[in-house]
């Protein structure tokens, strides 16, 4: 059985974010970690999301990994390819959004027949449910422009320009255009005509204004048959309805059903976003937590051992049914201090390695319900646990579902939630386990 949608996500939490919206819209979805070495059994699957770690890696590596994922998804018969990146358009002037989009579109054009949308792709980062919107090509986070939202302090990809046409034009030699709200409100046919005119003018990439769910529905109606679409997960919630209209997708009952959860509950947080910092503070007012410091971790393994001992004492003690938190989340000034001493890459790596070690040890000792905050942290944890495949379950908060992964030596699957740093309400870490129960 061929799949309908094959997605290529540039990080782990972004992959889960998209998969969550697909499931909520009625598609049975599996997320795979990296490009599988073989064909998978996909008899009861409508969509597959390949999670890469290509958001912040060198451009050439991002292109190579993305093209490998494209080839594998085409081998599964995917009718449409979706390049998923963050709703805050995280990237530098060198890439990777523009170069990867160019490479994917060129490969698709070279390996398939000419059809609707084969000369261009749309860029739809908006996710209105999570207050990511685009107007006149400018990206807003809530009521703030992107460059005044906290993203200007991102440790790897600081975003200091909210004009996405301008941002993307610095990443690609091809022309970048705009589908404005003025066009979208005229409906699907008007948008299709506008996109066709831009394609005739040689515009390869089209930034799309998006203010609400109605805009997403118009966009999905115009591009459901495009061989390649790109964007955040918002577009993913509107595409399945178009697939059903086209006769590609059948109605499915409870696409997100998972097995009962078992085991102790742990939160590992490496994100330093404003949203996660608030979630950490909220959790610590109600439950126990242990803070990690990159500078201390870099000096010796003592703090890591202390964190392990702390977790064991709580997860195996009288209050073992309560979740506990281990976090390296810190305010921007503290992150900057660690980066100045260790270097930005090394400061991030020492935290990722610590979280990966904790996950490997504590899951091996009985943790069965695990929440991980931060894209890089999630990637490190998933790699450490050698997770190859995730079945996508029900949503905790917009963009974040529970998932389950089979692990060697465990009878029950690991229940796992991978949270992008900016996602989730302030009570996310506590409420996640209530949703699972």
Molecular structure report:
With 437 residues, the protein is of the alpha/beta class. The chain folds into two domains: 5-245, Putative sugar-binding, N-terminal domain (Rossmann fold), CATH 3.40.50; 264-436, Four-carbon acid sugar kinase, nucleotide binding domain (Molybdenum Cofactor Biosythetic Enzyme, Chain A, 3-Layer(aba) Sandwich), CATH 3.40.980. Helices cover 40% and strands 21% of the residues. The chain has helices spanning 12-24, 59-75, 97-111, 164-169, 181-184, 188-200, 213-223, 234-245, 274-284, 294-299, 302-315, 332-342, 344-364, 375-384, 428-436; strands spanning 5-9, 29-33, 47-51, 80-84, 121-124, 132-135, 138-141, 144-145, 175-179, 203-208, 228-231, 264-269, 289-291, 324-327, 367-373, 389-397, 400-405, 414-419. The strands form two sheets. A 15-stranded mixed sheet has the order 9-10-5-11-4-1-3-2-16-17-18-15-12-14-13, with helices on both faces. A three-stranded antiparallel sheet has the order 6-7-8, with no helix packed on it. The protein is globular and about 65 Å long.
| Major sheet: arrangement of strands | 9-10-5-11-4-1-3-2-16-17-18-15-12-14-13
Proportion in β-strands: 15-25%
- Structural class assignment: alpha/beta
Helix content: 25-40%
According to CATH, what is the class of the largest domain?
Answer: Alpha Beta
Compute the number of helices: 15
Query: What name goes with the CATH superfamily of the largest domain?
Result: Putative sugar-binding, N-terminal domain
Task: Offer a quick outline of the entry.
This protein is of the alpha/beta class and 437 residues long. It has 15 helices and 18 strands.
């Amino acid at each position: 059985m061929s799949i309908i949608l094959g997605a290529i996500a540039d990080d782990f939490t972004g992959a889960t974010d998209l998969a969550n919206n697909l499931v909520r819209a009625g598609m049975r979805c599996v997320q795979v970690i990296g490009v599988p070495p073989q064909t998978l059994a996909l008899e009861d699957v409508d969509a597959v999301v390949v999670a890469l770690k290509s958001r912040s890696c060198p451009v050439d590596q991002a292109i190579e990994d993305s093209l490998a994922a494209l080839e594998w998804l085409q081998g599964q018969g995917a009718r449409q390819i979706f390049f998923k990146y963050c709703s805050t358009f995280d990237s530098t002037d060198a890439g990777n959004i523009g170069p990867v989009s160019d490479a994917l579109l060129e490969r698709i054009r070279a390996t398939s027949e000419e059809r609707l949308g084969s000369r261009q792709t749309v860029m739809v980062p908006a996710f209105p449910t999570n207050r990511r919107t685009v107007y006149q090509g400018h990206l807003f986070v809530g009521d703030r422009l992107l460059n005044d939202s906290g993203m200007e302090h991102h440790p790897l990809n600081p975003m200091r320009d909210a004009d996405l046409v301008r941002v993307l034009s610095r990443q690609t030699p091809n022309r970048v255009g705009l589908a404005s709200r003025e066009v979208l409100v005229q409906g699907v046919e008007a948008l299709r005509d506008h996109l066709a005119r831009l394609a005739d003018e040689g515009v390869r990439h089209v930034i799309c204004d998006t203010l609400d769910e109605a805009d997403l529905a118009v966009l999905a109606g115009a591009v459901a048959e495009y061989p390649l679409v790109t964007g955040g997960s918002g577009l993913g919630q509107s595409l399945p309805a178009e697939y059903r209209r086209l006769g590609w997708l059948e109605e499915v009952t409870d696409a997100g059903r998972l097995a009962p959860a078992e085991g102790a509950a742990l939160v590992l947080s490496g994100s330093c976003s404003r949203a996660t910092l608030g979630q950490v503070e909220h959790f610590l007012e109600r439950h126990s937590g242990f803070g990690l410091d990159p500078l201390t971790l870099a000096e010796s393994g003592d703090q890591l051992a202390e964190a392990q001992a702390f977790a064991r004492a709580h997860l195996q003690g009288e209050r073992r049914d309560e979740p506990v938190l281990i976090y390296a989340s810190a305010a921007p000034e503290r992150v900057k201090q660690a980066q100045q001493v260790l270097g930005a890459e090394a400061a991030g790596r020492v935290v990722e390695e610590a979280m990966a070690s904790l996950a490997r040890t504590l899951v091996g000792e009985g943790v069965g319900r695990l929440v991980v905050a931060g894209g890089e942290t999630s990637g490190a944890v998933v790699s450490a646990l050698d997770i190859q495949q995730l079945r996508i379950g029900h949503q905790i908060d917009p963009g974040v579902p529970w998932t389950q992964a089979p692990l060697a030596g465990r009878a029950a699957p690991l229940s796992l939630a991978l949270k992008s740093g900016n996602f989730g309400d302030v009570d996310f870490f506590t409420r996640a386990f209530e949703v699972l129960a």
